[in-house]
Amino acid sequence: MSTVIPSWQIPTRRAQLIRTRKYVAVICMERWGGSHFSRSGWSTFIPRKQVTTEWIGENLKKALYSSEDFGAHLPRPLPDEPFDSMKPESGARSNEFWLRIQQEFGFKDILTAMSKSALIFVGWPEDQGDQVEMRSSRGSGAHHSAWGTNENFGKVFHASINLSDLEFGEVAVQALDRCQPNYA
Q1: pLDDT at position 48, please?
Q2: Which of 91, 113, 116, 132 has its CA 20 to 30 A from that of 142?
C-alpha cells in the first residue's frame, strides 16, 4: 500500500518572475505554510530595455537554488515561533526591494511599482527531480492569482533546471506571455 504525501509536506523551492513595462524582477520566496519574500535568497531586477532571456534564466535559477522551504518539516498548525520572528524580517526585506524599484524607476509609491505587471509562479518540488514548474497568472491590481485548474491548459510550463540559462529563460518568457497581466 502506497502512502500519499500531502503537497504541503513536499519541500518546494519557490520564486516569482515579474515583467512590467519598465522592469523585470526575479524574487526568491521562502515557504512557511505560505510563500514569503526570502530573507536571504536571491532577488534582483533590471530595466526591461536591458533584460535578456539569458539574464532571466540565470537569475531565476539563482533564486530557486537559494529558496528555502521551512514549512514542509514543521508540524501543523505552524508554531508561533519561529514564524513570528521570520515575518518582520521578510517584510522588511520585501519593503527594501520594492523601495529600490520605486526609486530607480520613478514610481510615486511602492504599490504603483508592484502593479501593472505579468507574473509567473515558479516552483521546484523536491520530489520532481530536476523539473521546475512555471505557472502563468492573472493579474488584478497589485496582486496575482493562479488560474483555476479547469483554465490551466497552456498556462503551466515545465523545464529542467539543468537547461542552459538561455533555454530556461525561454520557457519562463513563454509562461510570461501566457499571463493575463494587469497592464490596463
Answers
A1: 97
A2: 132
Straight-line distance from the first to the last Cα atom of the chain, in angstroms, rounded to the nearest whole number = 52
Q: Is the peptide bond between 79 and the residue preceding it cis, with omega within 30 degrees of 0?
A: no
Collapsed DSSP state (helix, strand, coil) of residue 31: strand
- 101 close to 113: Cβ distance less than 8 angstroms: yes
How far is Cα 52 from Cα 105, in angstroms, rounded to an integer? 19
Instruction: Give me the long-range contacts of 122-125 (CB less than 8 A, separation at least 24).
Output: 122/14, 122/15, 122/16, 122/17, 122/60, 122/63, 122/64, 122/172, 123/12, 123/13, 123/14, 124/12, 124/13, 124/14, 124/64, 124/67, 124/161, 125/7, 125/10, 125/11, 125/12
Over the stretch 24-68, which tens digit does the pLDDT of each residue have? 999 999 988 788 999 999 999 999 999 999 999 999 999 999 999
The position carrying cell 530595466 is 47
Q: Is 134 within 8 Å of 156 (Cβ atoms)? A: yes
Map residue 116 onto helix, strand or coil: coil
- Among 6, 94, 86, 87, which residue's Cα sits nearest to residue 43? 94
Q: What is the mean pLDDT of the chain?
A: 88
Nearest residue to 13 (alpha-carbon basis) of 51, 49, 63: 63
Given CATH 3.40.1590.10, say whether it is the number of domain 12-177.
yes
Q: What does the domain layout of the chain look like in residue ranges? A: 12-177
